[in-house]
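S.,

Sequence below, as promised.
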Amino acid sequence: MADVIAPENEEGTKATILRWCKAAGEAIRKDEPLLELETDKVTVEVPSPASGELAEILKQPNEEVQPGQILARVRVAAGDAVPAAAAEPAAALMPPAAAAPADESARKLLSPAVRRLLDEHALSAGDIAGSGRNGRITAQDVARYLGEMITPPAGEALAASARSNRVPHTSVRRRVADHMANSLAVAPHVTTLFEADLTRVQAHRARNVAEHERQGTRLTYTAYFIAACARALIAHPSVNATFHKDALELHSDANIGVGTALGNEGLIVPVIHGAQGLKLPEIARRLGQLVTAARNGKLAPQEVRGGTFTISNHGVGGSLLAAPIVINQPQVAILGVGKVERRVCVVESQGAEAVGIRTMCYLTLTIDHRALDAFQANAFLEHVVNTLQQWTDD
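The prediction came back faster than expected:
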């Protein structure tokens, strides 16, 4: 027999089984897709480790699985070699998910973030069931417990049930919720706000948008924001960083993630790697490819990994001003972009002031205050604004 193992992912987090491509008893070839798994970022196919017959399915669709867990077993065809990893016993890969912690005291080993949440809400750790490894309480467990505390009485809930229905969360929505709650729990967030004059950007786009369309590329304002941020990240490396408890890791490449809405399903953050080395047309082309792949569920795992900075262009939905309060951990900052619109402004020209109409938007930068201070945040955002306001042909 060859075991079908849930693959490792970059974050070591759970995945959800979407569907099985084969039924128990069906023949299968080595490396033929056997099932699909969905993480909070991508959908991946898991291939068969050997040729033969799918003998047993151990996990069903919509079940969550940990990296390393056994999902199924393949009865290997005569003469087909069994991969070493597939032949290892299950115990060597992952302890049983339902195993009880050997030491009950391990349930009370709390992280600083969890201790802070308990103190803020005057809660006792003994009242909260932990879902972490060995029963450890996580920040999400505390948030879930707080939500249950304000659940209406049974009578009210029954009355409400006649007027409402419960829609189960998708695995993407659950992962996004956990990721956001964790980010708020571990990092002190601070936001700074600037206003940007995009009149020169708007003029440049107007001159070039038709040519980009002839080449099959949409030249969006987001491409300009990516280009401006890439330049600023290289000039201010402390913003292009990963926070560790003992150090700040500075990255040489500006790998910029762009929050992409998936309708009611949540969002995903595809990454443009090495943005500092790309010209505006290349950024626009790559952005279009990633957004299309994201909305079609076709992103490859490497296309959502390795981000060092994130942009949330909430303005495309009409929002004038918002402060993204959830940094994409372990990054240290996220840029929020408001709606681009024409406004009446005071304009300085040759030492005199006049009233004019300009293309404007609000930009916010939310930082992890453990890693950055206001001075660094303002210097970075000023660099971004100046690049946009002084835009020249790329």
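Residues 85-108 have pLDDT under 50 and may be disordered.

Coffee later?
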